[in-house]
Amino acid sequence: MALLSPSRRLRRTPFSDGVEAAGVKAYTVYNHMLLPTVFRSVEEDYRHLKEAVQIWDVAVERQIELRGPDAGRLMQMLTPRDLRGMTAGQCYYVPIVDETGGMLNDPVAVKLSEDRWWISIADSDLLYWVKAIAHGWRLDVLVDEPDVSPLAIQGPKSDELLSRVFGDGVRDIRFFRFGVFDFQGRDLVIARSGYSKQGGFEVYVEGGDIGMPLWNALMEAGKDLDVHAGCPNLIERIEGGLLSYGNDMTDDNTPHECGLGKFCNTHSAIGCIGRDALLRVAKEGPVQEIRAISIDGPPVPGCDRWWPVTSEGTVVGRVSSAAWSPDFDTNVAIGMIRMTHWTPGTVLDVETPDGTRRATVNRCFWI
Amino acid sequence: MALLSPSRRLRRTPFSDGVEAAGVKAYTVYNHMLLPTVFRSVEEDYRHLKEAVQIWDVAVERQIELRGPDAGRLMQMLTPRDLRGMTAGQCYYVPIVDETGGMLNDPVAVKLSEDRWWISIADSDLLYWVKAIAHGWRLDVLVDEPDVSPLAIQGPKSDELLSRVFGDGVRDIRFFRFGVFDFQGRDLVIARSGYSKQGGFEVYVEGGDIGMPLWNALMEAGKDLDVHAGCPNLIERIEGGLLSYGNDMTDDNTPHECGLGKFCNTHSAIGCIGRDALLRVAKEGPVQEIRAISIDGPPVPGCDRWWPVTSEGTVVGRVSSAAWSPDFDTNVAIGMIRMTHWTPGTVLDVETPDGTRRATVNRCFWI
User: Could you tell me which residue ranges the Aminomethyltransferase C-terminal domain spans (chains A, B) (predicted)?
Assistant: First the structure.
């Protein structure tokens, strides 16, 4: 692995001091900010995530705040998901599309009240898109990036750990709902959500100054639970089919190609900017789609570029994320496959840097 | 320095194979893409840049292409620089501002023809802003990211090297002008520009497939000129006062604060989105501004966060970039200083990770 040169442009987070003290080994850069990727090793972090509880610095999930009378209208312009049934206190996973139906981001929208929303973004400057849409359409809404940094608590012991710091009320938070809880006199939004399939929460830490106090309180409270600093885990997120914007999809892809058709209500999402462009694909379906793919053989190297997927020498897709899974004893991967070859059980070739490997299209993801 | 985890999301460039073969030691991430930062060492690369010639993979300077009848109108909406006098064949450094006058990017605009422009961007997804403005204002213009990757040739021997590959015509290109030159049957835009003060060119490589052929042709042609792979050099760019978006300025800053008032014609740039917001600052001047700052003592550590600048204990600014300069035998730095303390010769304190250092506001940058 290459080294990462430090600069102010690669922003630190309110939790960076804790991350460094915990012995972070590698980073990636996400929304112009440092995101840890390895603490002990990717495989050790994976095992621990499935058995204990971890604290994740996911401050890189920057928020876009919409505030004002047109906030709800603007939110609906951004996504083909119908938001009419959404109430304050709910979180929705929302594909964001441009006027051609291309994916610009795949954030979680947090509805704080009728006229106040947070959009918890993946890796792109969605703020620029949202600000310009508000400007161009002359909407009566304030759009900015507030001082809010999510801290995730993930793993089977998350309820136990979080209840020790915030009280037993957190146990009652339902999936993709949030409540407001006190920490040192501050009201914090806590949602049952996160970028793993092991259960847990995301605390929206409002005010960078309480970042380290909260980090330390959680570490202290969880000593006997074997709490450890962690981060989104490459293996576990592929097993769980959690897509990564920029890896598994880009602005070339529609939500339907990404398997996100279930989050699109293209007919009823009136006002969505990309609605016209998506009506046809919603009706006829995409010609390529995200699939879980098993790759035979020993552990594959890191997937730092698209690996072509071929059938009898013809390219029929690409792999965008891949890792060896200890639990499933195979290489797990995410790829985009053309409809001619996406039937579960189809055997294909993947061109990895280590040579061509046999691969199989799965019926579904592993967890 | 920490390690950087590879992933497809951190895009490779058409020149990455050459960069790796040349022994790149560290990267940063810029526009979701890998940007080399060190080959031999920052100080060796610096010395070599000033004495010989380097090939830089600056594919991270992604292009935004504007094409269509409203291309020129859209370009003027983006910037407070008056573009009426600009002719095809010219490049302009253009601050890009939002409706509040905040900097969104500081790219170079390349006017290919009346209805076709490239915007060669710094590190932010300006494409999102430009696409949404075109959409919101219903402009008749196509906006996208073409397959164009700049390759810079920088250093005192740049004219000699480039003329060996493209012919003596390149010697006649004037500063911030471009010509079109043939390489293997392909027309390439070549501008006299680049992110150093050592002279040189940027070749806008259209079509990733000719990236490595051109890289190899330049390396081969320059063997006796001591050509080497290089990259924007931290020390040299601070000496030259070349600002870095995300380091030295953010969307909190107006162009005037960044010392870019000379690129703003706020009165005559009719149509500029941020014009109203900038009229007052253009008239009264900013209350803080970018300054060259010398920091006393031994070499400072890497500047990975803003260092507070104080006077008698009160914060009066911040340093955002700093490095030891062998040629000027001092630490050179770029900072934003309040008007009460920005007079050349003012002595201030800078709080570095190594402790407080004495610093002086300079009259101008070093080169």
Answer: 306-361
Structural domain including B339 reads 287-367
Measure in Å the smallest separation between the Cα of B123 and chain A Cα atoms: 9
Q: What is the CATH number of the domain that holds B342?
A: 2.40.30.110
The total number of structural domains in chain B stands at 3
Q: For position B100, which CATH number holds?
A: 3.30.70.1400
CB pairs under 8 A between A and B: 170
> Are B303 and A26 an interchain contact pair (Cβ–Cβ within 8 Å)?
no
Q: Do B1 and A2 touch (CB under 8 A)?
A: no
Q: Which residue has the tokens 């102010």?
A: A8
* A5 to A23, B41, B58, B304: CA distances (angstroms): 18, 12, 16, 9
> Are A51 and A168 contained in the same domain?
yes
Q: Does B138 share its domain with B192? A: no
Q: Which of A238, A255, A278 is the last residue of a domain?
A: A238
- What ipTM was reported for this prediction? 0.97
Facing A32 at nearest CB: one of B38, B246, B321 = B246
Domain identity same for A298 and A349: yes
Number of H helices, E strands in chain B: 8, 22
- Taking the whole predicted model, whether its pTM rises above 0.95 is answered as yes
Give the one of A136, A273, A304 whose C-beta lies nearest to B6's C-beta.
Answer: A304
Residues A217 and A105 in one domain: no
Torsion, CA A254, CA A255, CA A259, CA A260, rounded to 10: -170
Is there a contact between A9 and B123 if contact means CB atoms under 8 Å apart? yes
One DSSP character per residue, A238-288 reads HHTT---BTTTB-TTS-TTTTT-GGG--TTT-TT-TTHHHHHHHHHH--SE
CA distance B224 to A230: 51
Shortest alpha-carbon distance between residue B272 and chain A (Å): 13
Return the residue of B nearest to A30 by Cα: B32
- Residue A172: burial class (beta carbons within 10 Å; 0-12, 13-18, 19+): exposed
- Specify whether B176 is located in the same domain as B211: yes
Shared domain check, A232 and A194:
yes
Instruction: Give, for all 367 residues of chain A, the pLDDT tens digit.
Output: 799 999 999 999 999 999 999 999 999 999 999 999 999 999 999 999 999 999 999 999 999 999 999 999 999 999 999 999 999 999 999 999 999 999 999 999 999 999 999 999 999 999 999 999 999 999 999 999 999 999 999 999 999 999 999 999 999 999 999 999 999 999 999 999 999 999 999 999 999 999 999 999 999 999 999 999 999 999 999 999 999 999 999 999 999 999 999 999 999 999 999 999 999 899 999 999 999 999 999 999 999 999 999 999 999 999 999 999 999 999 999 999 999 999 999 999 999 999 999 999 999 999 9
